[in-house]
Amino acid sequence: MKYFIIAGEASGDLHASNLMRELKKVDSKAEFCFLGGDLMQAQGGKMVIHYRQMAFMGFVAVLKNARTVLKNMSDCKQAILKFKPDVIILVDYPSFNLRMARFAKETLNTAVYYYISPKIWAWKEYRIKEIKLYVDRMFTIFPFETAFYAKHNYKVEYVGNPSIDSVCLRSNQQQTLSEFLSINNLPAKPIIAILAGSRKQEISACLPRMLDAAKQFSLYQVIIAGAPGIDPDFYKSFLKNRNDRIVFGQTYELLQQARAAIVNSGTATLETAIVGTPQVVVYNFSFGRIVNFIKNNILKIRYISLVNIIAQKEIVKELTGHIFTVDKVTQELDKLLNDNSYRQNMLKEYERIKDELGEPGAAEHCANKIAP
User: Fold this and answer.
1) Percentage helix, strand, coil, to 5, in the chain?
2) What's the fold here for domain 2-158?
């Protein structure tokens, strides 16, 4: 079969590449054309656009890059027409992907599958109309999404959560702290990990405050998890003369060895929970008081972190908008590092979440449902 896959972000590149790997196992004649990244390229096929040309976050960023966005859409449509896929697989990234779903159904009547549902359960619930019109099958990664879609009379298929796969199947789970420190030429001090996001825009907005909070704990060294596609010099511009370090390609290893983590809201919050590292979740946005009011009174969910959304209660502290301050992050870090009862309760809740997500194998389960 011929598969056209669209992933517009670094996380989508990872999950789509795993799906491509599994599709090749069950379909020896699999051909791929895609919008994605280096991990997908490593699986073979033709890349149309790299996700770095697509990852614009927020209305203003999209508006500023409108010409690029429109060109990406045009190039994607032309690639679909030229490739003539048997199936189109969309990976999250709804603003772009739902437009391509409509184009594919109306132009070629191609089968359209979605792997990793848009978070319409949080906002823009109206998108269910487009999904029901243009998406033939939806493969979800959170158990609660089944009930959400059921109330809209749309059946979905839960295949497991790819973060369970990524974290639990990593090769060096037995690595010790001393080994990690030695490999990275780090001093013999306990670690506070910082995960500041995958886009330059969010890193710029969050990292300075994250660093200022972490530096209050002089007994610890601060290690930043470098995001794929972000140049080391970009991070160094925030460090000035500090001794904080950056490690690339070792996020799970860093979390495994860290005593606590400051994490920008996103998939990383769930990955941190699966690894088992106590965390405080932060997120920056303009007009913080207004946005927090909207979050608390208009959005369909009470929380922004996947950990709390899955648990349906506050497991990790969320500091967003105007309450994302150095002082508040410092206070929460102090509890994570020094209040053992607080730490143990968080770790206990982590285990409950992992049980709910189930066993590894999301990409494998999805591939088995897609391939002939």
Assistant:
1) 50, 15, 30
2) Rossmann fold (3.40.50)
